[in-house]
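User: I'm putting together notes for a lab meeting next week and I want to include a structural view of one of the chains we've been expressing. I don't have a solved structure, so I'd like a prediction I can at least talk through. The sequence is below, exactly as it appears in our construct file.
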Amino acid sequence: MKPNLSLEDIGCSTVLECLYDLADIDKKVFSFLKDGGEYRAKEVAEKMERDQSTAYRSLERLVDCGMVYKEKNNIRNGGYYFLYSARPLDLIKEEALECLEKWYERMKESIEEINGFIE
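Assistant: Thanks for the context. Below is the predicted structure for the 119-residue chain, given as structure tokens.
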């Protein structure tokens, strides 16, 4: 039996999903942000037609995986809010390629270790 991997099914969306463990909403949010600008979670929620808490969780996942910047802004009379923006695509691509290279090398090493696993 061959590994269950269809090369035709691998595209940008699949790679982002795999490398960064993104959900569909995360990919939609990033797609919106990558066109430029800084947005509050509320604005993203309105654009995505989702609850603000859903948008916030998605934005935080994107921040955690390094695809989105988060900037804290103070309000003059007290309080603060966050603005989110996409990191430059060339940086994300560079980091993704580095990650892929490391993953590939580790996969090769693991395949070489199969004899020890089976015995």
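A couple of points you could mention at the meeting. The chain is about 60% helix and 10% strand. Residues 8 and 31 are 22 Å apart (CA to CA).

User: Perfect, that's what I needed.
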